[in-house]
Specification:
Bound molecules: zinc ion
Helix content: 55-70%
Largest sheet: none
Order of helices and strands: HH
Radius of gyration: 13 Å
Number of helices: 2
Distance between the termini: 16 Å
């Protein structure tokens, strides 16, 4: 499993740099309130998924 994002700090949003109330659940709340971050997160997750798909099918 290779995470390619530069997610260095679990309590900082990697997309806008905003501080999260807590790791994990705090991020889910954060993207709930920030549509731009949610969009970026979905894109990031789909990139990971397509990377994996490419590896497995390749
Ligand atoms: Zn954010």
């Amino acid at each position: 499993m290779a995470a390619t994002t530069t997610w260095t700090d679990p309590i900082t949003c990697p997309f806008c740099g905003g501080e999260l109330a807590s790791p994990g659940a705090g991020f889910m709340d954060h993207i709930d309130e920030n549509g731009d971050c949610e969009t970026e997160f979905e894109r990031w997750r789909q990139n990971l998924a397509s990377d994996l798909t490419g590896e497995w099918s390749g």
